[in-house]
Amino acid sequence: MIIAIDGTASSGKGTLARRIAEHYGLPHLDTGLLYRAVGQRMLDFGLDLSERANAIDIARAFAPSWLEDRRLRSAEAGTAASRIAIIPEVRTALRDFQVLFSRRPGGAVLDGRDIGTVIAPHAEAKIWVDAAPEVRAERRWRELNGNGDPISQAEVLAALIARDERDAPNMIRASDALLLDTSKLDIDATVRAALDLVESRRPA
Ligand code: DC
Predict the structure, then answer these.
(1) Average pLDDT by consecutive 10-residue portion of the chain (204 residues)?
(2) CATH topology of domain 2-199
(3) Is 127 in the pocket of ligand 1 (CB under 6 A)?
(4) Contacts with 124 (C-beta within 8 Å, 6 or more apart), sequence order
(5) Ligand 1, atom 3, residue with closest C-alpha
(6) Domain extents for the chain?
(7) Whose CA is nearest to atom 4 of ligand 1?
């Protein structure tokens, strides 16, 4: 069974995907990490993020070991990711790895922006996770502060809104996805609602 979890930045989709994967004992891929890995390499090589040709070359050389870099969770890597993710050739270069992952025997859980539409349009269960920008910004701010980043909540909100705008063209909600607004839900309630959906779509 393929479970596709898409949604906005800091909506809680990553945590939800991890919990669902644990519940079913399925492998999980956070597809944002692929874009973050390409963005991080651009930063490491001192390359301008608007240099499309460099981003495309890096994406075409993608290796799974890049995903183990702890720095990929940083705000800088996230911003860099959203800038190179708008390049169609970068998306194409990173597609096969995601599609292959989704086809693992027994199934898989993938989270991202276009899993239910581009990567695994035939996924049995699709969930679209969102929350109000202020709620997402506060969650992200707590996380960054916890990691010692002195960034202000207003800065996080501004960056999040800019990210939403950049991600919009590739942030595609499948018509058959269940909408989960996590603005007022804690993670346990979110997981319960998501599991109800997955169970209802589970092949007999
Ligand atoms: O989910 P995240 O914050 O780790 O994603 C980082 C960026 O990568 C996000 O701004 C948009 C891009 N992305 C994408 O375009 N498609 C995906 N499937 C996952 C992420």
Answers:
(1) 96 96 98 98 97 98 97 91 97 98 97 98 97 95 88 93 94 94 93 93 76
(2) Rossmann fold (3.40.50)
(3) no
(4) 1, 2, 3, 198, 201, 202, 203
(5) 9
(6) 2-199
(7) 32
